[in-house]
MFS transporter
Amino acid sequence: MATASPAPSPGAGWFPIASIMFGVGWGANQFASLLGLYTDRLHLGDGAAQAMFGVYALGLVPGLVLGGPASDRYGRRRIALPFACLSALVTVVLMAGVAAPWLLYAGRLLAGVVTGAVLAAGTAWVKELTPVSGTRMTALAVSAGFGAGPLVSALVAQWAPHPLVTAYLPHLLIMLLTVPPAFRVPETRVPRAPVTREAGRGRSGLSGVRNPAFRRTIAPVAVWTFTAPVSAFALLPAFVPVHHLPIAYAGAITGLTLASGMAAQPVARRLEARHPRLVARAGLGSIACGLLLAALTIATGLPVLNAVAAVVLGAGYGFVLTYGLGEVARIAAPDELAGLTAVAYALVYVGMFAPLLLTVLAKAVPLGAVLTAMAVLAAACLAYVSRQTRASGRERPERREPATGGTVPDVRECSARR
């Protein structure tokens, strides 16, 4: 079994790892605000740009599912750092896509693999370096990267020459600055020996997935995490554009959405300390309201309503992301933290397919009606999760013993006890 390294002291070295997660998040989402430009310049068909956006999730899931357990087994450094270096190479592939559009699909797929591996390993690494605030730090770093990347790339693409090349240059600079310091951060997991067939019989390595708390109150919330913000920034600007500044407008909506998510996370953490049940409820409630605002945006054609919907959907994203990562860190056994985090992120990124799905559905059903139906589904999910938490008869389900035996308390949980 992997064990924690005794070398690093609590809080040592977390910033360089959070920085590479910021950079990888930037690289993963810098493409979002360029969807319309690619459609115009490369004469892509309906839904092609959204398909490029969504194919990222196809790479992300194996990156998460393989990278998380591999990080638990082989150590954080061996997964996070090589894949962080590959993030810059993926950006070069996207830059070449202006001449060969098929490279955009390849680049987006590879971006998913890279992001999944770094998110899974990096989240666990920061959590182990700074147990009390690690989950909050990683959520903020990733959200900041997701928001800043498309905003800056849009501003560059709106006014710089050769926009589909120059828009990616800031990411290369960021990775050049953030990756070298990360190599000096100490490892927190000692690589473990391969588990024999006999010793591993009966263990999946992800016992937390079987925890009722994961199935009933984490998974149903996680699937809405990115469905909310991408509906605001990857879908609405295409249907309700600002014609004289289309790229900058798309980037501004993306930045506003994810900035709202960042601003919501500290509020969610404070609410979590007093009323843990309400974090998921507030997030799902915001998402349901935001989807109704998105439907109203489509009905009225007013870009200003897109901005309002972006704020509400972004806040919902921040709440449910904080809730999901916090609960995963609480229920995960020590040797499966990255693996269970990876499973949660895989559910989170199902939402990346929302723009493609909604674009396809909009050909048969009015988009406003589809968004309204999604709001109803989010409200139904809110009712289900609320019922599950009430049925537990306590603020949070008790931590189950991990499959390896023994109970490992969560630092946040202990500090919050009154």
